[in-house]
């Protein structure tokens, strides 16, 4: 009897494991197909300066699944990284963002805008990464100076020399770099000093509690000071309220991204920024 129970338990467990594996395989196949059939969409989230003017956007990918609806990147980027689909996916994101830059370059009121693109560790580790990025820039006719690549500290764990070499080569061609989710991963100030970064992003977890938690406030203040002394621009992410915006501003952080200024959305939603500016000019 005990033996039987054991076997049943084992079978039960197997069935569940099998179901999980099946679901994963399905999703992986769906994603492969989705990539080929235009199911991915790029949303853009505004980044603004102290005067509330749009300076650029971050490109954030979404997956319009035929039956499951709009899937967030938190749900499929890790899967894409595990099965290697992040490479074609990342290439698609880069290409789409650079095409958008090319469109914006044709209009005087949008020509200055930058697009920040998230890059996965696996993508960056490719031998051909520098070549691939520059090829997309050339193909689309985008200005490299308007493209920013967002890296995370997870990239810092191996081959720092190789990483710096790739960054320098891209920077020599005009591409900028931003360190995403700063302070949440493996941060080494020694590396931070050596990486040719243009910008660091204060992670939203620090922004969220900076006004109520003295330790988070200290982290925000220190990050701003660090960025300034290393000649890097500092931008805060996850800014949801006017009070947070003002608090960050008073701590010397003058660039913001967050729901308070706009959620990620289709490119057309950004038009209110240049409409607002035109109206401001007309009423002056
Ligand atoms: P991330 O690069 O740190 O992007 C910021 C995330 O915070 C986005 O989530 C954005 O929608 C969200 N966010 C922005 N403002 C606020 C706010 O005020 N409050 C709150 N609570 N959240 C805010 P999203 O779009 O779900 O993306 C999640 C992550 O997925 C990104 O984090 C990034 O690591 C990854 N990701 C997104 N697109 C791509 C991509 O094209 N390639 C790669 N490799 N990763 C991507
Ligand atoms: Mg990012
Ligand atoms: Mg981030
Ligand atoms: Mg993140």
UniProtKB/TrEMBL annotation:
The residue ranges of the EAL domain are 24-278
Recorded protein name is: Diguanylate cyclase/phosphodiesterase with PAS/PAC sensor(S)
Q: Which residues of the full protein are shown?
A: 603 to 886 of 886
């Amino acid at each position: 009897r005990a033996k039987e129970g054991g076997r049943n338990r084992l079978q039960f467990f197997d069935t569940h494991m099998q179901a999980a594996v099946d679901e994963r395989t399905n999703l992986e196949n769906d994603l492969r197909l989705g990539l080929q059939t235009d199911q991915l969409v790029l949303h853009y989230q505004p980044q603004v300066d102290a005067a509330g003017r749009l300076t650029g956007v971050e490109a954030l990918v979404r997956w319009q699944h035929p039956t499951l609806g709009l899937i967030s990147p938190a749900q499929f980027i890790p899967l894409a990284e595990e099965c290697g689909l992040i490479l074609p996916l990342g290439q698609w994101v880069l290409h789409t963002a650079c095409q958008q830059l090319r469109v914006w370059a044709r209009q005087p009121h949008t020509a200055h805008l930058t697009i920040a693109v998230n890059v996965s560790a696996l993508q960056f580790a490719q031998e051909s990464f520098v070549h691939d990025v520059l090829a997309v820039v050339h193909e689309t006719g985008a200005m490299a100076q308007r493209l920013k690549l967002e890296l995370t500290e997870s990239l810092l764990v191996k081959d720092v020399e190789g990483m710096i070499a790739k960054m320098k080569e891209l920077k020599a061609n005009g591409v900028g770099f931003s360190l995403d989710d700063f302070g949440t991963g493996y941060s080494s100030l020694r590396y931070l000093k050596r990486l040719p970064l243009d910008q660091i992003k204060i992670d939203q977890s620090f922004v969220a509690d900076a006004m109520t938690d003295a330790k988070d406030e200290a982290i925000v203040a220190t990050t701003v000071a660090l960025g300034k002394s290393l000649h890097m621009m500092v931008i805060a992410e996850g800014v949801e309220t006017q009070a947070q915006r003002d608090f960050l501003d008073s701590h010397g952080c003058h660039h913001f991204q967050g729901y308070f200024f706009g959620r990620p959305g289709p490119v057309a939603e950004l038009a209110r920024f240049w409409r607002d500016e035109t109206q401001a000019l007309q009423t002056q």
